[in-house]
Amino acid sequence: MASTTPPHALTYESTSRTLTAGGYALHYHEAVPPGPDAGKRPVLVLLHGSGPGVSGWSNFAGNLPVFATRYRTYVLDMPAFGRSAQPDRWTDLYPRVAADALRCFLDALGIEKAHLLGNSMGGNVAAEFALAHPGRAGRLVLMGPGGLAVNTFGPEVSEGSKRLFAFLAAPSREAMRAWVETMVFDPALITDALLDARMAAASEPGAVERAASVFATFGDPRFATVPPLWARAEGLTHRTLLTWGRDDRMLPYEGALFPFRRLPDAELHVFARCGHWAQVERKEEFERVVLEFLGRP
Predict the structure, then answer these.
(1) Model pTM greater than 0.90?
(2) Which residues are catalytic?
(3) Which of 95, 135, 142, 211 registers the highest number of CB atoms within 10 A of its CB?
């Protein structure tokens, strides 16, 4: 049953839900606009990025109250992240597994069609879902999306990726700070409280191992039978908003040029003085741009 919690009262606990569908044990957050017509509002699903200790709530807690004023909004913990379980074994590249989990999630909730907003790897998952189930995806908001970015000017492995893998190899508070500081333009945003929360989540039993197993699917030759996502970009015919931080050190913004050119119905918004976390660093502008895009006729 949909939550009718007023936006100002949204908390982790008040929005937390679980379900099992298609063999996936999934955790998510749900919030809907108040009023008798809440169940008729369009659906928006928020898909987080990747990394140790990452969850849907850590990515989008600050944005949920705003989006839930207009949309039935769901923040999904994708498989192996947050409180969603890792499958017993990986049967495909992670974004395609997560896209299948998203399909099962929507089926379980009786949702036929949803707008998708994906951050980083979540953008990869949103794109894979839209390609596999084009009639079930509404508009797409892809935030520095993995898989679609083609880095033509910078190094093959970005600074942010190097620091992420350094943390996975030798987890420490210092390595965590070095990684998350590459997510933003202004390092002052990385407070001790934020660092404590990320470190606590990454220190939970199995968190680092689960993240490492997710990334390992990208190098597994068994899952290389399908062309990479960027090579299938022209199949994404949905109305798409690409967003990027001009100072993104995880997926540098020049990576936006390829999908912006190849996606048939894409537009691009670049945030100045902003890194990979536009939803945090340019929160109000980000929310305004997204709501304007989704709300057009």
Answers:
(1) yes
(2) 276
(3) 142
